[in-house]
Each structure stands twice: as structure tokens, then as C-alpha cells.
Design brief:
Oligomer: single chain
Shape: elongated
Radius of gyration: 34 Å
Structural class: mainly alpha
Strand order of the largest sheet: 2-3-4-1-5
Number of helices: 47
Largest sheet: 5 strands, parallel
Strand content: under 5%
């Protein structure tokens, strides 16, 4: 974190009095946004820093640069800026931003805005140099902040270009205060004051008027002209020949200013121009000298387009235009090897001061692939800012360079997988393999072969290719260096998934334990969370629900206060456990939180299906058959639309439970047969009064579950066998099977497992009591059958739509696509989709057509 980005520039001792503009800025504080937009060199920063030192508002300053196009980095600095007003503000958001995979930006902004709302004193936040922002995602975040920030907050944006936010709407609402070129350019009186008082020139009025006319009041042009005039014996002749287009004037004056400096100053200016920000020790390192702080002070005093970034005037930056020209000249004067040396020195200095990102960027700017690669390997894959910096650099490299550096290709593939992107990964892995064939067989190349195999385990996992996961994992372990802990941890996690699918639970436990241990040693929180979630799921399968719940809660602690996408499975696990404990309110809360997180994944990821199935199951538990059916149909439609084949059986299982409740046994049987759901087939046989057929199905399932030590399936088989023998009138045998199930159910409080079997289980439990089988769980569950059956779905009034949701609904009714709605309402496409889902949920519909029809029937939309 570069704190100099947060410092309000010190006002110069001698500036032009611009009282009218300062008054306009002060009057604009009753609006939401002040926009100061003009090309470079019109005095935006000087005016604003002067104003901020005069206003009584609490204020925060943030100077932006190109790296702030990373939304998470932008938000990190935004929080840091606000903390200069209130140090405790946004600490939860700051913690979340350091997590392995932070929550969506909009969600973090909501949390931040809520905290800002607690601060009652008037405050303003100034974003300087916003024109460097080119990422629409950052523009969307700024727009969200503008829309939702409290009235006590005022936002100021200084930029060369208008930001991509709905300025027209703000202007129409009277929420925008604007200062443009016409406001900022110097008039004749201000030009005279500037040239005479600030720059120390004594020119005749006619000469000043000519300069003012030819520069059109452009402050930087006047300053550059004044610097050139300081060495002129005949100012009038210079002014007479001073003409040309705007950018030509700029080039000419900068050349004249630069050439009039001493060789030492020129060399200093040129060589330090590679730096975004400068301080004496950093410049000393780059230039291999010892007097840089003194030279910076001299340049500052000479007004050579340098800006002090702190009160102590230790850190500086060049005016952007000046910096651009200096870099252009530097590239012309120095050879590529000489430039590389400068960037290498800067890179070394940043690394010594624990600024790995800046060190990496200077290595890349110097085309020092080897050093950049070394630094990249030290940079965490999951930290803010690092991933985008590495990915951008790798994407910029020519194929010829990548093909000669297999390690870069492997790293490229790993970064894409971290971002959840699998397309394009395999070709990079194959290219790396071809490159490795030309490399000597040593520890390094073997480790890269192992990393390639590890990457393929992850790809196979996303495609549910179990045998491929196992084969590639074995290859990865054979080649990975013993100390490559992160890749070994990730490989163990993927292998555990494959073992779990195959029912090899002991091997699953071993692999997960290894993954957890290795990720802890490597300080790899991302993989630690994944492996811990896997361990929680294993505990669930083994009917160790209390251990599972504790594991899932630990995952939430690892993730910090703000949720992350990957922890949706922990929330879903807590939903399943709460359901078993018959805490349906908690189950629904966890399931909703899980669904919210799962929906953050890119389209085509099936994470949300299981969340919606859980919510449908909860509706079934409430006897809301219509609600469960509606949600289940919506979920199945989405699964088929996206061809989520791996989820079809789980959807079918819940559909069968619904069909059994509706007594549609023929449909249920057909579905169970087509998906080969043996336990469901047994349930259907019991419902059809065919207990012998059920016993035939269940007996081998019970034997297999017991032989493999699968407690969850053993519990299910024993319960159904008990019901089957009871249906045959063989109560003693039924009680014996129930005796095997009850200890498992009692130890884990599996209340819903018993309740969901309905009246036949209720009758069996009464029979068990009559036979002298006493259990605290039976006594706890029996009253719930009556209570449960009395729960009826209540007719609900439609939850009120928000104003924004009504706006979106109106656009839907008009036939606009999600993208078109986003463009018309200045919303991101993701935000439009979230609003649409909320609308469907509130109106209890599943698609656009139903939503419009329902809204018209309720009077929300006019009848056609």
C-alpha cells in the first residue's frame, strides 16, 4: 500500500487566487458529485488541493494510477483513503480483500457504504486522475457508490475524460456540480497574475495578452512558456513566433524547457521518469548516486512539473505530460540494455522494501523475463492485484518467448485455473510439455512436469472425470518437488474428490488430511478452505454431523467476515445439517446465503443447482408442495438448459420425493428407474404396497453399506428395511432393523430423516415403544409428526418490489434484453440478473413472461 497515493498535495506558497472557483466548489457540496474534467495542465489538482486545505469538511484523497484498474486494488485504496478520516472504517472489507478469493465487489461496497452511513460528520472523498481508469467494472463500482452513499458524503472526481457513469441522469436530478475547461482556463487577469506573481516574469501587457490568447488560458502552456522565457533575451520575438496546434505547442515547450536544464538535471529527469513515484533513496538506487533528495528539492523549487505527494516533500511525482515526454526521450537516448539496468535497479529496490508487485512490474518493463519469472514465483496466486498483474504480463508476451519458457506457460495455466477459467489451459500445458522436451532432466523440469499433471487434475475435476483425476494426481506426486507444497496440497484436494465419488472414504480422509497439512505449511488459505470443506462433507457422509458443523464454521472463520464464492459449500453444508436437526429457519438462511454466493460464479457453473434443491426440500418439509414444485421446475429447466448432466440424478431424487407426496407413483417409478436410484425404487415399492420387492432391493444395499462402512447409506437402508418388514406385519424383524438405525440417528440428531418417512415411520416408532424400545430420539420425534403435519403453506402477499426492481420489470415488459436493460439503466449485466431473480422470487414465478403477467394481474404494471 503506497500511502503517498492518499496524501492531499501541499498547496503551493504562490498560486493564482481563484476565489470564484473555490466558492463554486463549496456551494456544490449539497450535491452528490463534483466533476472537475479538463485536459492535462488546466490546474485541476492545484485547485482541488487548495480547496481541501480550506474546507471544514472531513476529507480523503486518492490519486489513481493504471494499476487501479484492478477492481479489488481500487477498492483497497478507496478503503485506505477513507481510513484517513476514520481509522476503523472498512476494516471488515479490508480483511475480506486480503482473503484467498474475495467476495464480489458490489457486496463489499454495500458493507462499506453501511459503515460510512454510521459516520455523521460531513465528509468528502476526492478521486484524482480518474482518467486512468479504463475498466468498466471500476466505473460500475463508482456508480454504485454514487447511487447508494449517504447524504453526508460528497464525491469529487478529477479527470481528463468523463467517467463512464450516468452523468446525464445526475445532471437532470440536480446532483452534479461541474467544472470544465471553460471554467478552469485562465482569463487575462489570471494569466497576468500567474506569469508575474507565480513565475516571476515582468512582461508588457500586450505580451501577456498574446500568450493568454495563444495558450487559450491553458495553465500548463503558460507555465511552459514562462519557463522558456526565463532564458530568453528577446521575449517579444519568442512570443511572436510562439504558435501551433495544442500538442505541437506541448512538444515544443517541453523540448525547450528540458534542453535549458543542466546536463545533470536533464539526466536525472530522464532516468527517473521510469518511476511512477519518486523518493530520494529510490532515485539513488536507480541512478547509482547519493544526492537524489537534494535534486528532487531543486526540481521542485524550479517548478519543473513535479508534484510533492506529502507534507515532508519526501515523495514526488512528475506531471503526467512531462513524464510521458521524458519517457519518450529516454527511449530515444538509451539503448535497450541501458533501460533494462534502470528497471532492474528499481525492481531490486522495491523488492528490498517488500513491494513485490512494483518489483515485478519493473522487471517486466525492463523485459527481464528471468527476473520477472523469479519474482512471479514469489508472488501469491490468490492475493489482490498480483493475479491481474501476472496475467496481463503473460498475455502480453509473444508466443516465441512463452514457447521458450515452459515455466511461464505452466504459471499461466495455473493462474487461469485460479480464476476459474479452463478454456485455453490445455494448449498451454501441451506447449509447456513440448518446451520441456528440449530441457535437461533435472529437479526443475521434473517439478514442472508435476505442475502440469496437477493442473490437469483440476481440469478433470471440473469435468467430473474421476479416473483422469486419479491418474494425473499419481503422475503429479511422482514428479513434483517435495517442497512444492501448494501444488501438492491442491493435488491432494482434487484426488480426495475422486476418492469420495468412488466411495473410498478412508482414502478420501487421507488425501484431505494431507491437503490441509500442506496448505497450512504453505500458508495457502485458498486450498486450505477447499480441503476443509471437503473434510466437512466427508464428516457428513460418515454421519458425524457435529464435527461437520464445526468444520464448516471454521471455514467461515478462515474466509473472514465477508463471504467468498468458494465458501458457498460451507453454507450449504450448514443448511443440510440444520435441516437434519429440524431447524428449518436456520437451514433456509444458510441455503439462501449459499445460493447468493453460488450465483457469483460465471454462467455455466452448476454450483447453484444444489442450493436451489435444498430450498425446495425445505419447502417440502413445510408441506408447501406447490412452492417446492415451482422451484424444482425452475431448477430443472436451468439444469437442462445448461446441460448440467451431473445434477440430473439429484434433481430426479427430489422430484421423486415430491411425486410420492402427490401419490403419483407411476411417474415416480419411471423416474427412479431411468436414473437407477435404488433407494427411491425401494420407497416407491413400499408406497405401492410391495414390501417384498423393497426388501429385495434394500438387502444388497444394506450389505454393501455395512461392508464399505458407509454410515449414511446404512442408516437409510436400515430405516427402509424396518418399514418394509413392518408393512409385512413382521414387527420383531422391523424393530431389529430399527435398532440398527437408531444409534446412528440419535448420535447425530437425525430428526428430519425420520420425519421425512412420514406416517409409516410414525406408526413404526409407536410400535417400537410398545415393544419396549425406548429412545430419547423417539420421544423427541413422535410429537413432531403431529406438529409437522399441521404446518400448512400460508397464502403470502407479494413482497413489495423496490423502485429499482420496478424499473427493471418495466424494461423486461418492454422486451429489452439484460444487456440492453443494463445500458438503459446504467447497471452492470450481473446487477440486472440479480434484480430479475429477486423479481421472480417475489412474484413467485420462474421466467420473464410469467413475471410480466403476474405483475399486470397485481396492478404493478398496467394492463395492455
Amino acid at each position: 500500500m503506497l500511502t503517498t497515493k492518499l496524501m492531499i498535495p501541499s498547496p503551493r506558497t504562490s498560486v493564482v487566487n481563484r476565489s470564484q472557483l473555490l466558492a463554486r466548489l463549496q456551494r456544490g457540496l449539497d450535491r452528490r458529485l463534483t466533476l472537475v474534467a479538463a485536459p492535462a495542465g488546466f490546474g485541476k489538482t492545484t485547485l482541488l488541493s487548495t480547496w481541501l486545505h480550506q474546507t471544514s469538511y472531513a476529507k480523503a484523497w486518492l490519486t489513481l494510477d493504471q494499476r487501479d484498474n484492478d477492481p479489488l486494488r481500487w477498492l483497497s485504496y478507496l478503503v485506505a483513503a477513507l481510513q484517513t478520516i476514520e481509522p476503523t472504517l472498512g476494516q471488515g472489507v479490508q480483511q475480506a480483500l486480503q482473503a484467498a478469493q474475495p467476495a464480489p465487489s458490489e457486496q463489499l461496497l454495500v458493507s462499506l457504504i453501511n459503515e460510512i452511513n454510521q459516520i455523521k460528520q460531513p465528509m468528502l472523498l476526492l478521486l484524482d486522475d480518474y482518467h486512468v481508469i479504463e475498466n468498466q467494472a471500476v466505473d460500475d463500482m463508482l456508480n454504485f457508490l454514487l447511487e447508494h452513499m449517504p447524504n453526508s458524503m460528497h464525491l469529487v472526481v478529477a479527470t481528463r475524460e468523463d467517467p463512464q457513469i450516468p452523468l446525464a441522469r445526475l445532471r437532470a436530478r440536480g446532483q452534479l456540480n461541474e467544472l470544465r475547461v471553460s471554467d478552469l482556463r485562465f482569463n487575462l487577469a489570471e494569466s497576468s497574475e500567474f506569469l508575474t506573481t507565480v513565475m516571476g516574469l515582468h512582461l508588457p501587457d500586450q505580451a501577456i495578452a498574446k500568450l493568454e490568447t495563444r495558450t487559450e488560458g491553458w495553465v500548463a502552456g503558460l507555465q511552459l512558456a514562462a519557463l522558456s522565457l526565463q532564458g530568453q533575451h528577446d521575449p517579444s520575438s519568442f512570443i511572436e513566433t510562439f504558435s501551433g496546434q495544442h500538442h505541437f505547442i506541448l512538444d515544443y515547450l517541453l523540448s525547450e524547457v528540458l534542453h535549458q536544464q543542466t546536463p545533470a538535471i536533464q539526466a536525472f529527469l530522464l532516468q527517473t521518469s521510469i518511476l511512477e513515484r519518486m523518493t530520494g533513496p529510490l532515485c539513488d538506487a536507480v541512478l547509482n548516486q547519493t544526492n537524489s533528495q537534494t535534486m528532487l528539492a531543486q526540481i521542485d523549487q524550479a517548478n519543473l512539473f513535479i508534484v510533492a505527494l506529502d507534507q515532508q516533500r519526501a515523495w514526488y511525482r512528475y506531471h503526467q505530460l512531462f513524464s510521458d515526454l521524458l519517457r519518450q526521450r529516454l527511449a530515444q537516448q538509451l539503448s535497450q540494455p541501458e533501460l533494462v539496468v534502470l528497471h532492474q535497479r528499481a525492481s531490486h529496490w522495491y523488492q528490498q522494501h517488500d513491494l513485490l508487485l512494483e518489483a515485478f512490474q519493473h522487471a517486466t518493463l525492463g523485459h527481464d523475463y528471468q527476473r520477472a519469472e523469479q519474482l512471479m514465483l514469489q508472488m501469491p496466486l490468490h492475493a489482490n492485484g498480483f493475479v491481474s498483474a501476472m496475467l496481463n504480463w503473460l498475455a502480453s508476451l509473444p508466443s516465441a518467448v512463452l514457447d521458450q519458457q515452459p515455466s511461464l506457460l505452466v504459471r499461466y495455466a495455473a493462474i487461469l485455473l485460479v480464476l476459474g477459467q479452463t478454456s485455453g489451459v490445455e494448449p498451454k500445458l501441451q506447449a509447456a510439455e513440448r518446451g520441456l522436451q528440449q530441457q535437461p532432466d533435472n529437479e526443475h523440469t521434473r517439478d514442472l512436469i508435476g505442475q502440469i499433471a496437477a493442473a490437469r487434475t483440476t481440469i478433470a475435476l471440473t469435468q467430473y472425470q474421476i479416473e483422469t483425476i486419479i491418474a494425473q494426481a499419481q503422475r503429479a506426486f511422482a514428479y513434483l518437488h517435495p517442497q512444492n507444497l501448494p501444488f501438492r496440497a491442491t493435488t491432494n484436494w482434487a484426488l480426495a474428490y475422486a476418492y469420495h465419488v468412488r466411495g473410498e472414504r478412508q482414502n478420501t480422509n487421507i488425501a484431505l488430511s494431507q491437503s490441509i497439512e500442506l496448505s497450512q505449511q504453505a500458508n495457502d488459505t485458498f486450498t486450505l478452505i477447499l480441503a476443509s470443506i471437503g473434510m466437512g462433507q466427508l464428516h457428513e457422509s460418515n454421519l458425524e454431523l457435529y464435527r461437520a458443523a464445526a468444520t464448516y464454521r471454521h471455514v467461515l472463520q478462515l474466509a473472514g467476515e465477508q463471504p467468498q464464492q468458494i465458501i458457498y459449500e460451507a453454507q450449504l453444508g450448514l443448511a443440510r445439517i440444520s435441516y437434519q436437526w429440524n431447524d428449518l429457519a436456520a437451514a433456509e438462511q444458510h441455503a439462501q446465503q449459499s445460493l447468493h454466493l453460488a450465483l457469483q460464479y460465471e454462467q455455466g457453473i452448476d454450483r447453484f443447482i444444489l442450493c436451489e434443491l435444498m430450498l425446495a426440500q425445505i419447502k417440502l418439509a413445510h408441506n408447501d408442495l406447490a412452492g417446492a414444485k415451482r422451484l424444482l421446475e425452475q431448477t430443472e429447466q436451468l439444469a437442462r438448459q445448461h446441460n448440467f448432466v451431473q445434477r440430473f440424478a439429484e434433481i430426479a431424487h427430489l422430484r421423486i420425493q415430491l411425486l410420492l407426496r402427490e401419490a403419483k407413483l407411476s411417474n415416480a417409478k419411471q423416474l427412479a428407474t431411468s436414473h437407477q436410484l435404488a433407494f427411491c425404487q425401494a420407497q416407491i415399492a413400499l408406497a405401492q404396497a410391495q414390501p417384498a420387492a423393497a426388501i429385495t432391493i434394500l438387502t444388497p444395499l444394506q450389505q454393501q453399506s455395512q461392508a464399505n462402512n458407509w454410515p449414511d447409506q446404512l442408516m437409510q437402508a436400515c430405516c427402509l428395511l424396518a418399514l418394509a418388514y413392518a408393512a409385512q406385519g413382521q414387527n420383531e424383524q422391523a424393530i431389529e432393523w430399527l435398532k440398527q438405525a437408531l444409534p446412528l440417528a440419535e448420535a447425530n440428531q437425525l430428526i428430519r430423516t425420520l420425519l421425512d418417512y412420514g406416517p409409516t415411520m410414525q406408526q413404526l416408532l409407536h410400535t417400537a415403544q410398545a415393544y419396549g424400545l425406548h429412545s430419547s430420539l423417539i420421544e423427541q420425534v413422535l410429537p413432531l409428526f403431529t406438529d409437522n403435519s399441521s404446518i400448512k403453506p400460508q397464502a403470502k402477499l407479494v413482497e413489495r418490489l423496490s423502485e429499482r426492481e420496478i424499473e427493471v420489470l418495466q424494461q423486461i415488459a418492454a422486451g429489452y434484453t439484460d444487456r440492453q436493460i443494463g445500458e438503459r439503466l446504467y447497471l452492470s449485466i450481473y446487477t440486472v440478473k440479480v434484480h430479475a431473480r429477486n423479481i421472480y422470487a417475489k412474484l413467485e414465478v420462474t421466467n420473464r413472461t410469467q413475471a410480466v403477467a403476474r405483475a399486470r394481474s397485481l396492478g404493478i404494471l398496467p394492463q395492455t
